[in-house]
Inverse folding.
């Protein structure tokens, strides 16, 4: 498996942008969790709780924390790719429905562009994917 950042039609990567706005220690803690996703296989398709949990259907969340800060990264699998769709600082017990809708809308956009014949750029993953 390979974790990749969702890239919108204009080439922007919102998850990468969010991570870039964090301090170095928080970035490192989150990137450590993302690396765990790259270790998944077809035999072990999901990280166990508390590292990951199901959100809605096939939408899962990568659970990251650094100190008292909690971050969530909703993601879905597409073949051998794990697409990191959204990221947010978690402030309440339940995930806000707006964050779920954002992740689902980005997934729908990703699938529409990847399923198009021919595929619509930009590519899902670049050489700089995590």
């Amino acid at each position: 498996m390979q974790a990749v950042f969702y890239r919108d039609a204009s080439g922007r990567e919102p998850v990468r942008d969010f991570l870039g706005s964090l301090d170095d220690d928080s970035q490192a803690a989150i990137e450590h969790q993302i690396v765990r996703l790259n270790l998944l296989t077809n035999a072990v398709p999901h990280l166990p709780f508390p590292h990951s949990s199901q959100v809605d259907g096939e939408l899962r969340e990568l659970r990251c924390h650094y100190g008292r800060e909690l971050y969530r990264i909703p993601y879905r699998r597409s073949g051998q790719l794990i697409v990191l769709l959204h990221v947010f600082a978690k402030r309440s017990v339940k995930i806000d429905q707006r964050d779920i809708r954002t992740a689902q809308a980005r997934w729908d956009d990703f699938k529409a562009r990847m399923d198009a014949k021919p595929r619509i750029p930009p590519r899902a993953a670049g050489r700089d994917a995590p």
